[in-house]
Structures are given as C-alpha cells and as structure tokens.
Design brief:
The complex is a heterodimer.
Chain A: H1 2-27, H2 37-58, H3 62-85, E1 87-89, E2 92-98, E3 101-103, H4 105-123, H5 131-158, H6 163-179, H7 184-204, H8 207-217, H9 226-239, H10 251-254, H11 266-299, H12 303-327, H13 345-364
Antiparallel strand pairs in A: 1-2, 2-3
Chain B: H1 2-27, H2 29-40, E1 41-46, E2 53-54, E3 60-72, H3 80-91, H4 95-105, E4 113-116, H5 121-129, E5 137-146, H6 154-157, E6 159-162, H7 165-171, E7 181-184, H8 186-190, H9 192-195, E8 200-206, E9 212-219, E10 227-229, H10 233-242, E11 248-254, E12 260-266, H11 272-275, H12 280-288, H13 297-300, H14 310-319, E13 329-331, E14 334-337, E15 340-343, E16 349-351, H15 353-359, H16 362-372, H17 374-383, H18 405-412, H19 418-425, H20 435-446, E17 450-452, E18 457-460, E19 463-464, E20 471-473, H21 478-493, E21 508-516, E22 525-533, E23 538-545, H22 551-567
Parallel strand pairs in B: 2-10
Antiparallel strand pairs in B: 1-8, 2-3, 3-4, 3-5, 6-7, 8-9, 10-18, 11-12, 11-23, 13-16, 14-15, 17-20, 18-19, 21-22, 22-23
Helix pairs in contact in B: 10-22, 14-16, 14-17, 14-21, 15-21, 16-19
The chains are: A mainly alpha, B alpha+beta.
C-alpha cells in the first residue's frame, strides 16, 4: 500500500517531466530566440532533480519541522535582499546572484511558507471557545498570526513586483487554513473582508498589472502590446485542435509567434503540437499526481505532515490551473510557471523538493 | 471531512480547465487554425515596371529607373541614436529630420518605416554594404518614372503618381493595389492599362518578426508595354522655342493620316516634379498658378475662333449654293443692321469670296451670314467638327460650343436676334472651340473633304496601332472646299493677304488668320490655322496665342515654326 503511493508519485512525476522535456525540445528546436541549450540545461537539471527527490525520500521528514522556522526567517531576509540588490530582468527585480548561481527567493518562499504554516498549525491545540476573550484569543492565534506569517512575504514579493506568486501564497494560506479545525464562519469572514478590500487593491497595482487585467477582459484593446501574448497563445492552443499539428511542426511555436513559450507559456506549445489529446493527457497526469498527494494527506497520521501535504496539493493545483487557464485565456496573465514543465531551475527545484517530501511521507505515514 | 471538500474543489477546477480546453481546441479550433495560417503567410507585392514612352523616332520621352528607399524596422531597432546618426552622415541630411520622419510614420512594431526615398545608387550601395552593422536597416528597390526631356511634350505625356482613393475603388478589379502608381492626364492616363506593369508578388512564410522563413510561391511581376507616339520631340522643341515667354498652343498634324506630330501648350510644367517627393511645394505651386500650366490648352482650352470661323461659313455658302465664288459684296467699312453698326477693319471695296478670305473682310461674312442663316451656319460648323469632341486619344478633352437658335430658346428662353447671326458669322458670340478642333477642320478642308482622326499613338509594345487611321468623307461638295483652299492660299500669296508673312519660298502654305475678341479689356486671341505642303510631308498646323493681340503675331510665330521645321528637314 505505502510502496504503491510512492511508486505512483514517481511514475506521474517522471511522465510529466518527460512530456515537459519533449515540449521544451520543440520550443527551442532550431531556434535563435530560444536557444537549444536550455533544453539540455533542463535535461541535466531534471536528472539532478530526480536524485534530490530520491535522497529527500530517505531523510526523515520531521527534520523539515525542525528547520521550518529558520528556513522561513532566512527566506524573508533573502526577499529583502532581492528588493535591495536583486538583478533586474523583464521589468522586475526577482533574481538574486549568489556566488555565480542565480535563483529566485520568491520561488523558495512557496516552500518556506508551506513548512512554516505547517509547523505553526500543527503546534496549535484545538480549544473550545468559551466566552468573549477566548474567542478573540482564538481569532488572534488561529487566524491573524498565520495571516501575518503569510502577508509579510506576500508584500515583499508584491513589491518585486510579482503579482502571481504573491496571490499564490495567499491561496496556499487559505487552503491550509481550511484544513485546520477553524470554524467556517471565520474563514468566510476573512474572505468577505478580502473581497471588500479588492477595489482598494486596484490602486496598489502597477500600470502593467492593471493593463494585464484589462487585457484579460478584452485582449483586443492592445493586440500588439499587452494583448499580444494572450492572443497568440490562444491561437496556438486553439489551432492545435484535437490531434495537434505534430511535434516540431507547430507554426505558432516554430515561427516565434509565442513569446515566453519556454517558461510561462510552455503549455501553448503542448496544446498546439499535440492538440486536445496531449493537453488532456498532461492535465490527467497532474490530476493523478495531485490526487495521490491528497491521498497521502488523508492517510498521514502526523499533523505537520498532513498540513504540508495539503500545502503541496494547494500549490500544485493552483499553479497548474492558473497557468493553463491563463495560457488558454481563461484567467488573466500572471507570471506563474507550469510545475515540472516550464524551464526554470528555481521552480523545478522547489517542486522536486516537495515531491521528495511527499515520498518521504508516503513511506512513514503510519509511524505514529 | 474537509479534505473531501478540498478533493471536490480540485476535481471541479480540473473539469473547468478541461471544458475550457475542449471549447478552445474543438469548438473554436477551426477558427483558431484559420488565424494561425493567416499569421504566418504574408503576401509581399512586387512592383511591375512601367513601360517606356518614346517619340516617333525612338527618342525616350518617359523612362523608368531604379530607385532606392531606406526603411527602418522598428522591432529590430536596437540603438536608434546610432543608426540615425549613421544615416544622417551617409545621406547627408539633418539627423533631426530623419528622426521626425521616423516618429511620424511609425505606426506598428512590425511595419518598416520609410525614412528616406530615392537616395541614389551610390548611397544605396554604401548602406547595403554596412547593413550587417544595423539589423533594422532595409534598403528597398523600387521603380521611378523619369522624363528626360522635361517640359517637352509634358501635356501629351501627363505624369504618374500614387493611386488615389477614388481610382483605387474604381480599378480594384483590374489589378491595381493601394501602392500602385497610376497615370494622371495625357498618354500616361489614357494608355495606363498598357503602360502599367503587372504586379507580382511573393507568398512567404514569416516568423513573428515578419522575417522571411521560406518562400511558398512566387509570381513574377511583368513589365508594362512600351509605347511609341506619333509626336516628334524635335518639332516639340521648335514649338517650345517659338512659344517661349508666351501663352498659347502649337499643334502640328500630318495631313495624310491624322498623326499628331506636335502638341505644345505653354506654359508647361516639368512632369519630373510629380515623381520627386521632395517637390511637394512645387506641385502645389503648379496647381495654384493662375496661368494654369497643368491645363492642356490644345484639347481643354476653349476659345472663340474669330475670323478662322469664316472658313466654315464660306464653305457653307458655296456648298448650299447660296453664293458662288464670284458673288461679290461691297465693303465700305461698316454695316448697319437693326440700328447697330458692325464694323470691318478697312473699307475693302467690292470683294469676291477669294478676296474676302484673303483680306478677312467682316462685311462680306455679315452679309453671307444673313444669306445663310444661323441654322445653316451651325449645321456646317458641326459638320466640320466644331463644337464636338475630336476623340483624340488623350483624356479630358473638351467639346466646346456652337450656339444655335434652338438651343438658345430651349435652355435660356431667349430669342435669337439678327445681331447674333452676324456675330456668329465672324466667329464670335458664344462660339467656343479647342485648337484641336480647328486643326482637324483645317485638315478636312485641305484634304478636300477627307476627315481624319487625330491621334498620338503609333505603336504599343512594338505593334503598330492602326485603329485610328480612319478616313471619312464629309458630305460637302469638293468644289466648295477647293474654292476655299484657293482663298486661304490667296491670304498667304497676295501682298495684301492677312497671312502674307507666311509666303515662304519652296513651301506651299495656306491658311486663315483670326483675331478673336475677348471679354473685358484683355487683348484679343491670335490664331493662325493652316496647312503646308513640303517635300517631306504635308502638315496641318495651328498656332494659337492666348491674348496674343493681333493675328499677325500668330503668323509670325507660325513662320518661325515652319522655318524651324524646314531647317531641320522636317517639312
């Protein structure tokens, strides 16, 4: 039984990675704009990633609990450092160069937050709400403190600016909060407050973020500017029809009509070249992976393990759904990668670590 | 419990995504597939070369030459300052001007902007050699019209320009695109269908930058046909020299077949002005000029013919047998009708028809006009082609106007008075003709009734055009015409003839002078319309000076013309 879940995780992950590599090969095939080196880069990194995943499966996941707080604080420091001295690329300050190795602390923050919230929620003991004071205490400890833990990195990442990751963190927080025993009325209350604050949030957005949202509502406002990407990616996916145009023969892809097709928009390559069949295949693999993760969360007896796997499920689901939805024109364009498929070391590393964690958990879920 | 809800939420989200994918890829798949095909296929038009126009001796009147335009592709533009500094240096223009042009014309990221036109071959080569340094630089080859002889034959040739919106709609089905060059006025317009090259095109597959990836198909552009005109550029040059500083028209036509050898309208314009984009202000000046240099007076100018009109009146009198050549009227300098006095230039005494033509006696024609009647005068004028189009192969010809009793009562509800008949008899009073109509009439008379079709086309694409070699006979008695010929010859040979200045040795010249009064205080128009029989060919010719005062001026100009032609063995 437990071996079975671990095997499933391995199979789905490897299949997704292989599909992603094939798509990446096509996206960089005989191309000047997207150099072929990125494919080999990703290939080597995938192999390294599987090693990390395997090794993490061996380490006791309780060790994650021990480092969660330190990890979180270190990550906050890194985020502050990025804002001060990060590398500027594509109009945002997201990259940190350390010793010739560059990575995005915002990607790492997804992991840190899951661990931190997991550690925090698992330490909380359920209380019965007696009287006014205990109720306010409960709101404070079970709702406001974790909210604060989330909001600090959210604001720091929003400043970079990176709206997508920042919203994603909030999504992780909501999902994990939902998994605690907190009464529904507080969760709905929080959502209500957030909804009411949305109009004020509009004014905080950068002009390009406003553009993207407006363009989402009507891509034809600016077909050559902000709307270009979304129009072209929609054309790419739609023109794939049921069976696709064939590997390496997507015209939108091969003729460079798709910007950012090796990173955020990699799904449009899949949709164009492999059609609905390929797209649904990938979608199914993701679904099975997430479903298995949720099984682990359901069966694990340890609270920290449960919360962390819920967090992993949340981040996987949100990134897959938002990314595909955005590429297919269902959601506005926010910079979120497609897990295991988009080119990018930071992103890949985070998901590999998460899978390693799940592997570990699947083996030890009956310890207690 | 809560995990179950999370599970349901996840299923819901994935189903939502799957449904969206089905919608985009299956239901709207065809539509997006169509869009993706359009995305990558571009048609690049290739300009067809316009045919040449040459004169009857093969001298080039309208040529084509290769021109080079400089374009900048905005999406490949890396260092704007550096490129424009370089361009300014090579093209030796102000850098600011290039920047302004670029800023004005730039409208889309993928559309190249033309920053300099027609830069010349040397500069194009320099730019082409250094292109690798500036990826956004494009040197485009195109075609330009040039008119090597400048003002010579300008009105016959017309000019070319970008197709305008009205014509674009009108000619869309005939293969004209929005970028097409089209002829305006003259031969360039009338024979545009032949001259115009056929546009070809490349069908190419492009990437998102619009750069060519591969060639899908090619349609070669075709060069337009060369056209040979009946015009002789040497005669044109002589005519230009004769009319130097004046306003007027000289037409020379071959009496044998209706070929127009020369057609000069002065003031003229230089058609090269319309080719050069830098000459916008000059074009505006041409359009606003009060002496109308763009007007081809030979076929569009409407003038009263004055005494030249005595020729059809005399023919009418003889043909209708109202008079004979011996019919004599006495001229005592003035003639009174209905309380009004109509004058003659001199008191000529008794004049017969021949003398009346030689002296251009008004009194004779007042009386002849009354004998004939206005209706008959109008009928004979019409029969000789006045007041109607000559159908020469040039656009925008005017038909002119011969007043008649019927027309006046129908249109203006006015009565026709005897005075009107008298005015009409000497070519005044609302009578308007073009110089082209006058020369055609003269050719008909000189050919004793054989009517010709005037034309300027000789050959298209090496094939001789003979549709215009039409010869019709008008229903006027030969004797009448030959009598009038004698009268017109007398005007030249007789010492007291009005055109005695044209009595040249070794040349048979005959014709009729005319001094047409104009409204107001302006000087009269001077006419001489006649024909000459030389060794080389027989020609009909028309010299018209707008506000040229006495007809003597026209005679002197005609003399200059004939002597000039004789000197060059063109007669």
């Amino acid at each position: 039984m437990k071996r079975d879940l671990a095997k499933k995780i391995w199979i789905y992950t490897v299949m997704i990675v292989v599909m992603g590599l094939a798509a990446l090969y096509s996206a960089s095939y005989k191309n000047v704009r997207v150099p072929q080196t990125i494919f080999y880069d990703q290939l080597v990194f995938s192999l390294a990633g599987f090693m990390i995943m395997y090794l993490l499966g061996k380490i006791d996941y309780r060790k994650f609990y021990d480092v969660a707080h330190a990890f979180y604080i270190l990550n906050i420091v890194l985020l502050v450092l990025v804002l001060i001295s990060g590398r500027y690329a594509l109009g945002a300050r997201r990259w940190l160069d350390i010793g010739g190795f560059s990575f995005q602390p915002s990607e790492l923050m997804k992991l840190s937050l899951i661990l931190m919230l997991g550690a925090y929620f698992s330490d909380r003991r359920p209380r019965l709400p007696y009287g006014f004071f205990s109720q306010t205490q409960m709101i404070f400890w079970d709702l406001l403190i974790p909210l604060g833990i989330t909001i600090v990195p959210m604001v720091l990442i929003f400043k970079q600016p990176d709206l997508g990751t920042s919203i994603l963190l909030f999504g992780i927080f909501l999902s994990m909060l939902f998994a605690t025993a907190l009464e529904y009325r507080y969760i709905w209350g929080l959502l209500g407050v957030c909804l009411a604050a949305t109009p004020f949030a509009w004014n905080v957005l950068k002009p390009y973020q406003k553009d993207r949202l407006l363009v989402f509502l009507n891509p034809n406002i600016d077909p050559l500017g902000a709307g270009y990407t979304i129009i072209q990616s929609k054309i790419a996916i739609g023109s794939g029809q049921i069976f696709g145009k064939g590997w390496l023969s997507g015209t939108q892809n091969q003729l460079n009509f798709l910007p950012e097709r090796h990173t955020d928009f990699i799904f449009s390559v899949i949709g164009e070249e492999w059609g609905l069949v390929g797209a649904i295949c990938l979608l199914t693999l993701y679904f099975l992976l997430i479903y298995t993760s949720l099984d682990i969360a359901n069966q694990v007896k340890d609270k920290f393990g449960m919360f962390v796997s819920i967090g992993v499920v949340a981040i996987l689901t949100l990134q897959v759904v938002i990314n595909i939805g955005m590429v297919a024109g269902l959601f506005p364009v926010v910079g979120l990668t497609l897990p295991f498929v988009s080119y990018g070391r930071s992103s890949f590393l985070i998901f590999v670590i998460m899978m390693g964690f799940l592997l570990n958990l699947s083996k030890r879920r009956t310890i207690f | 419990m809560r995990i179950k809800i999370i599970r349901l939420a996840i299923i819901g989200l994935f189903v939502l995504i799957a449904v969206d994918l089905i919608y985009v890829q299956v239901i709207r798949g065809q539509y997006f597939y169509h869009l993706s095909t359009n995305n990558r296929i571009r048609i690049v038009p290739l300009e067809g070369w316009r045919g040449r126009i040459e004169d009857r001796n093969g001298k080039i009147l309208a040529d084509r030459r290769v021109s080079y335009n400089v374009m900048v592709a905005p999406q490949d533009l890396l260092d704007q300052q550096e490129l424009f500094r370089y361009l300014a240096k090579v093209l030796s223009v102000d850098q600011k001007k290039i920047e302004e042009t670029y800023a004005q014309k730039k409208h889309a990221l993928f559309a190249p902007v033309v920053v300099a036109e027609d830069i010349g071959r040397d500069k194009a080569i320099i730019l082409e050699e250094n292109k690798y340094l500036y990826p956004s630089l494009i040197v485009q080859e195109g075609f330009r019209r040039s008119y090597p002889l400048g003002k010579n034959s300008a009105h016959v040739l017309g000019y070319v320009g970008k197709i305008n919106r009205v014509q674009k709609e009108k000619f869309k089905e005939y293969g004209y695109s929005p970028q097409s060059m089209i002829g305006y006025s003259g031969v360039e317009e009338y024979y545009d269908a032949y001259l115009k090259g056929e546009e070809g095109g490349l069908q190419i597959e492009v990437n998102s930058r619009g750069q060519q990836v591969q060639l899908l198909s090619l349609k070669e552009p075709a060069t337009g046909q060369d056209i040979r005109l009946t015009i002789d550029s040497d005669i044109q040059q002589i005519a230009m020299d004769v009319l130097e500083g004046k306003t007027g028209v000289i037409i020379v036509m071959d009496m044998a077949n209706g070929e127009v050898l020369g057609m000069t309208s002065v003031p003229a314009y230089d058609p090269n002005v319309f080719v050069d984009v830098k000459e916008q202000s000059q074009i505006a000046r041409l359009f606003n000029n009060s002496s109308a240099p763009l007007l081809n007076r030979a076929i569009k100018g409407l003038f009263p013919p004055g005494s030249v009109f005595k020729v059809p009146v005399a023919i009418g009198g003889l043909d209708s047998r109202k008079i004979t050549m011996h019919t004599t009227y006495h001229c005592d300098g003035s003639y009174e009708v209905g309380g009004m006095t109509f004058r003659c230039t001199h008191a000529h005494g008794p004049e017969n028809l021949i003398e009346s033509l030689a002296h251009s006696c008004n009194i004779y024609y007042y009386r002849l006009g009354l004998v004939l009647g206005a209706d008959m005068i109008q009928q004979y004028a019409r029969q000789l082609g006045l007041g109607s189009l000559t159908h020469i192969d040039l656009p925008y010809e005017e038909s002119g106007h011969v007043p008649s009793r019927r027309q006046r009562s129908l249109r203006k509800k006015e009565q026709w008075y005897t005075g009107d008949t008298l005015n009409l008899s000497i070519g005044q009073g609302g009578l308007l003709v073009t110089p082209m109509q006058m020369i055609r009439m003269m050719a008909t008379v000189a050919n004793s009734g054989m009517e010709l079709q005037p034309h300027v086309i000789k050959a298209i694409g090496g094939i001789t055009v003979d549709q215009y070699d039409l010869k019709g006979d008008i229903k006027i008695s030969r004797e009448a015409l030959e009598t009038v010929q004698k009268g017109m010859r007398e005007a030249v040979t007789n010492y007291s003839g009005t055109a005695h200045a044209l009595d040249l040795p070794e040349l048979y010249v005959a014709g009729k002078t005319g001094t047409a009064q104009t409204s107001g205080d302006q000087l009269s128009h001077a006419w001489f319309v006649g024909y000459a029989k030389g060794e080389a060919r027989n020609i009909a010719f028309c010299v018209f000076l707008e506000h040229g005062d006495s007809s003597q001026n026209a005679c002197l100009a005609a003399r200059e013309l004939l002597l000039g032609m004789q000197a060059k063995d063109l007669l």
